[in-house]
Amino acid sequence: MPPSFSTPYVNALQTFYNTVGKSYNNMTSKVHAGGPERLIAAAGPAISPGSSILDLATGTGKVALLAAQKVGPSGHILGIDISSTFVDIAREEAAKQGVASRVEFLHRDVTRLDLPAEKYAPRWADAVTCGSAIMMFPEPKKMLGVLATEVLKPGGVLVADAWGPVVPAKVFLDVAVPRGFVPTMDPRWLSEADGMFERLFEGTEFDLVRVEREGESEARFDVGTEEKIEALWKSMSVDQTWLNFGLEKLDEGTVLEIKKAWIEELKKYTNDEGSVVAKVGQWIAVAALKE
Ligand SMILES: C[S@@+](CC[C@H](N)C(=O)[O-])C[C@H]1O[C@@H](n2cnc3c(N)ncnc32)[C@H](O)[C@@H]1O
């Protein structure tokens, strides 16, 4: 039995990512290409031979496993995630790459780290990495407080990224929120993540050092036929739990109204070939824990 996490939302996310499982790497390989490498490079010397790193929401371990190469045999990486399927995939991959002795993956919720104290004494990490997940965390400022007091060494570095604009998802929130949908994610994470990072670190124990926009590539969503529109709508309204959690609380009529408005609004972004095309890029935030 997987452990029950902090809220129904986190439990639902866990179910979603367990279902995504092995297809995650394929789904993201094109649009997130080069992202983990840039995230790690942004941390500078905080991730170098001998460093200790916490990778929050590690997923299939993409960032953690690259970091393991960089820190070498004298370094240590801990990756945590709510999805037990992802944790299993990440462990298998660490064994395949021969880095299992320096990487540990644990099934944990970022809001309840609860790390074994004998191994992770307070303030053990040189850096914290977080790829494409910070916008999903309930109470992210509280989480920063935990990183500041329990995880990072003074002056330690936090690097996190967000990808966008994710046009169909952004349009979904644009039309759903005024019609009564209460999102778990601030819609601005999908289109103005630089400003969101600034807000996130305000009044915390961290100084935001910089936010960079990197590696734009083209994301294409085919909306040329009714079937394609239906499939994309299903993805927005049913599959993507990080986006649509809570939609089931609205009545059928309201959901239908949201769907109509979403289709109408999406037309504004659709080209002559029946595709919504967006230049999706990576916003990387680098923050340092105050000394
Ligand atoms: C888009 S994936 C990113 C995975 C990985 N960091 C990467 O860059 O490929 C988001 C990840 O966040 C994890 N996640 C979401 N909320 C979480 C939470 N509260 N605690 C731990 N992991 C969480 C999900 O299980 C999922 O693996």
From TrEMBL:
<protein>
    <recommendedName>
        <fullName>Methyltransferase domain-containing protein</fullName>
    </recommendedName>
</protein>
<dbReference type="InterPro" id="IPR025714">
    <property type="entry name" value="Methyltranfer_dom"/>
</dbReference>
<dbReference type="InterPro" id="IPR029063">
    <property type="entry name" value="SAM-dependent_MTases_sf"/>
</dbReference>
<dbReference type="GO" id="GO:0008168">
    <property type="term" value="F:methyltransferase activity"/>
</dbReference>
<dbReference type="Pfam" id="PF13847">
    <property type="entry name" value="Methyltransf_31"/>
</dbReference>
<feature type="domain" description="Methyltransferase">
    <location>
        <begin position="48"/>
        <end position="160"/>
    </location>
</feature>
